[in-house]
Amino acid sequence: MPELPEVETVMRGLSAVLQGHRIVEVELRRAGLRFPFPLGLARRVEGRRVISFRRRAKYMLMRLEDGESLLIHLGMSGRMVARPVGDAAMPRLGPQGAVSDARGHNAPPEAHEHMVLVTDHGWRVGFVDPRRFGAVDLVPTAEEEGHRLLSGLGPEPLDDAFTPAALSAALAGKRTPIKAALLDQTVVAGLGNIYVCEALYRAGISPRRLADSCAGVRAERLVPAIKAVLAESIGAGGSSLRDYVRADGEVGRFQERFAVYGREDEPCPDCPGVPPCQGIQRIVQAGRSTFFCPKRQR
DNA sequence: AATCAGGCCTGCGGGC
DNA sequence: TGCCCGCAGGCCTGAT
């Protein structure tokens, strides 16, 4: 589910619930996810106050007092759910960070809720991840960037440092299709299958074009397209291909604005009617679906 | 060094 | 209605 805009939205939802509060208990329902939970996870988090949050690519970092950060990655199917303890209303933090249906606090735990943080202000925040491709780790706050999952990441696409020149340098010499290059987190960090498709569409670049040939003038179109689609999605609360609700009670709605993703055989929104384009095509690249308009994207 | 297929897991929707 | 198959938003590993 979660690419950069979704992780950003979830992180903001978590921040609204947790920042400034103390974790009084950590419940672990299994030994780990993609890899084992860090040694002493519960002991090292319990009793600590949550200082702040930040996001790096698709990773969330929850800074705790005493200098450690809880790193959370949602993988493909991860989401956060939050509910006040002992209250009739039971908000949930969906993939976008938040609140939905009501269940009694004695209701059985949600399926695949692998870790729960209980706070001193009476909230339970759970990490639900059916496919278990997610990850949890602890890292010294001063050494976050050196964590093995973060150290190799490329630039943040919304940072000023992510410029056409920087992207061109990263693409130069790459003999792989631009679609695959943009999914490479060392080139730019945080894009996934959906937003790569959408950004290439906006930039009018074929997903099959060699990455090397996108350095230069095409990067001048690609970088603003990437920034725009991410910023618009964050502004819409991310996209939800499943049901979920945010902390403010709104669902992420950006999926309604996808131009190409998941729209095989639908007309391309920007092609003029005559002669009609053949519509959005789906192809498979590196084992993943790519959606694009062959007429508009060259 | 760079690139790609395969694997990790479970759930869901479409077709029969 | 029910079963089976293909597919899914990420990322790491190993083979080439």
Structure in a nutshell:
InterPro entries: FPG_cat, FPG_Glyclase, FPG_N, H2TH_FPG, Ribosomal_uS13-like_H2TH, Znf_DNA_glyclase/AP_lyase. By secondary structure, the chain is an alpha+beta fold.
Protein architecture, described:
With 298 residues, the protein is an alpha+beta fold. 21% of the residues lie in helices and 20% in strands. The chain starts with a helix and ends in a 6-residue tail after the last strand. The protein is elongated and about 65 Å long. It has six helices and ten strands. It has helices spanning 4-18, 41-45, 164-171, 178-183, 193-203, 217-235; strands at 23-28, 50-56, 59-64, 68-73, 79-84, 113-119, 123-128, 135-140, 281-285, 288-292. Helix 1 packs parallel to helix 6 (217-235) and helix 5 (193-203) crosses helix 6 (217-235). The strands form three sheets. The chain has a four-stranded antiparallel sheet. The chain has a four-stranded antiparallel sheet with strand order 2-3-4-8, covered by helices on one side. Strands 9-10 form a two-stranded antiparallel sheet. The chain folds into two domains: 4-146, MutM-like, N-terminal (N-terminal domain of MutM-like DNA repair proteins), CATH 3.20.190.10; 164-292, Helicase, Ruva Protein, domain 3. The structure holds a DNA duplex (16 and 16 nucleotides).
